[in-house]
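Notes, Module 5: Reading structure tokens.

Key idea: the token line is not a picture. It is a compressed description, and you learn to read it the same way you learned to read a sequence, by spotting repeated patterns. We will look at two proteins. The first is printed below with its tokens.
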Amino acid sequence: MKKSYFVLVLIITFLGYVNSVRAQYTSKKVRSIHQAYTDSLKNVEYNYIFPVLGQGAYSEGYDIPYPFGIMANYFWTNQGILVNNLQLGYKNAYNDGNSFDLRPILDDEGNEILGFGDNSNTSYSYNVRPDLWVFPFLDVYGIFGFGSSHTEVNINRIGNKEFNLKSEVDQGIRTAGVGLLAAGGVGPVWISGDFNWTWNKPELTTNTTFVNVMGLRMGHVMKFRKHPERNISIWIGAMRVKMQSETLGELSMKEALPQEVWDNKDQTVADYWDWYNNDATIGQKLVADKVLTPFMDELAKRNGESVVQYGIDKKAVQEWNMLLGAQFQLNKHWQLRFEAGIVGDRKSFLASLNYRFLGLKRKSSE
């Protein structure tokens, strides 16, 4: 029975997945200098409900984390985004009959009239993650938080002509999600990975953005000689972020365009009409008259009170980036963790504080 349990744990350890904000894991000591501590684990009488198979893990000499946890996180990220399939709508604030619903900006051959340059998103969030180790190798968790996002979209072409127009949008975001993980190690070395799914609701969009995150990590634990429950863990890893592409929303032109655009609006409007009069095809002019010209008239003559409706398809420039991280575990209750995304288009920083506890005991059989 013990042998089959050991094989099960080992297989799931190296094929499983772990929370992207946790270096806590089930480990078995191999030729440890803390032999007395390792031997004491085998004598533990574990009478708590979770994790299931917890007694078996201790009997085999595995050091398992306390099953219940609550983690507070701060997360910052900056990444490039690719934008296409822009659609625009217009709610005119001056009742002059120019309002229209969402329309794609395509010429008569189906090509997009507007081209995009370098676009980016910078965001930060605060969240809490309650979790439970159901088995010594399998953890489930929730994600609940809020934050803020700054998105910059640059239009650098209209037809075949160079054109400069920048939109910047700042908005709050609410987040909720779930995740599954497993983790484990042999001696001081551990390997882990995770899957989580979050639903993010920016305040200026009409739809919720779905994001899937997968992380893979491998690390090394250095224990304190006189305090075997205290350790420092360092690791390297990789993370993939995949987001839902379609975004729909609306905001006033005053909110959508930064002050520098309004300060230089005469040049922007002049560039637009230069393209319209000298380079635009008949098909492009037909689309421009229905979609783009109302915006240029607003920019030239009004103060930006009209509402812009928009729809875009977006994705990260790079889905994968490299991670470096470290965690200090004071004891089996408290852990402090830092992680940075450093290689790749996405840059990120994570700081988290985790508190763990044992939870409910089993009912006595007596």
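Here is the second protein, with the sequence above and the tokens below, as before.
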Amino acid sequence: MPTKDQSVSFPVRLSNSVKDVFGNTGGSSTISRISTATRTRTGSSLPKWKEIIADGGNATTGMDAIWDTVNSEQITWSLDYTNPDGSGYMHVQGDPGLCDTDITRTPKQPTMDISDADNAARARFYKALRKQQVAFSGPTFLGELRETMHMLRRPASALWSKNLGYLDALGKAKRASPKHWTKSISGLWLEFSFGWTPLINDVKDAAKAYSTLVNDKRGKVLSAGAVREADLSSSLSGFDNTNGIPRPPIAGGPTCDKSANLYNKTTVRYKGALVSRVQATQWGDWKLFGFTPSEFIPTAWELLPWSFVVDYFTNIGDILTSAVTSAADIAFVNKTVIRNSLYEGSIIPNWKTTKSNLSVTSGEGIGGPAYYSFTRKTVSRSPGTGVPLPTFSLDLGLSSGQLWNLAALLGQASGLHPQNLRRGNTLRGFR
């Protein structure tokens, strides 16, 4: 495959002129380097790829690319000073970020592991695929219908008969007893989260399923991905981040403090074409409504009490759904891995330490920190990879909605299972 190279190289320079009062000597030093931002792409183009997808063919090619960006500040640092031995100066000008004598800074290759992002991307792709195949989960709906209607019966009747009377009742409960208010508001949230919202969504999904029955459905591109981020600053060497140990970026220049950070981000995306076609004028395609033997396992899991809480912390539900989802109608799948690294920092002249080293009696340093940043983005696309099933994983990062649900459940549980003992029935030995 041909490689297109758009790399950019440019010269960088840092100079220093100095007069040392101790030896009454003057002079200058210069650092010159060539900095390069690598920008290459290896791969082949595919003309008329849209037509290939429409015909059910494989419309993807392999590709590898690197794209660097380099940003570094030009500075002027200056100190004219006197001490008991006489007068002196140091004047630094140029690019200390790219011309540091301690280290040659370049964009850093991303090193973050992709397994977590890959696993999440697999599950999301199968979920998107199943959404095309099963527009409405009839068995799950029927299994939850009785409990949903029971949950909605009381607030629904209150809202119907008194409009906002239910909310008024909540306000009265709050004024009467904050404890009862907590229980009431928890119940209202649970009814909204697990009653009203799922019921409305089920009605919408059923309408979509019916629409699919009576309309042709041709090729559709499916895409699903996941992103993970990491802070790898601790992996940097002492020359990157000196942690308070001052080092000058150029001989004869001011003493400097340095700090740096390194961040990685990984994105894994699966993309494929679904080329199935539905032609039905009657209720012949029951799989659109989930009435197939393969739907038994995910339906049983969905109807299992508290299974949704387990799904908050694990991907068991995703694994079960993926395992029963057919990939027979997928024409092709490609996998794209995008890795990003951000390497950034600053070099700050420490004028206090510099003047102390020179025994300065008068003179102020001029010039502030020099900032630099390097980014590297690598892209690797593999054609015809297929999508392996996701593997078991734990995830302790909950969304705000999941946290609200758990808080409401705990609020209800505390009301249903009070742990207060009656007065006079304290356990012996405890007061």
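Summary for the second protein:
- Residues 158-164, 279-284, 415-431 have pLDDT under 50 and may be disordered.
- The chain has one domain: 39-71+107-416.
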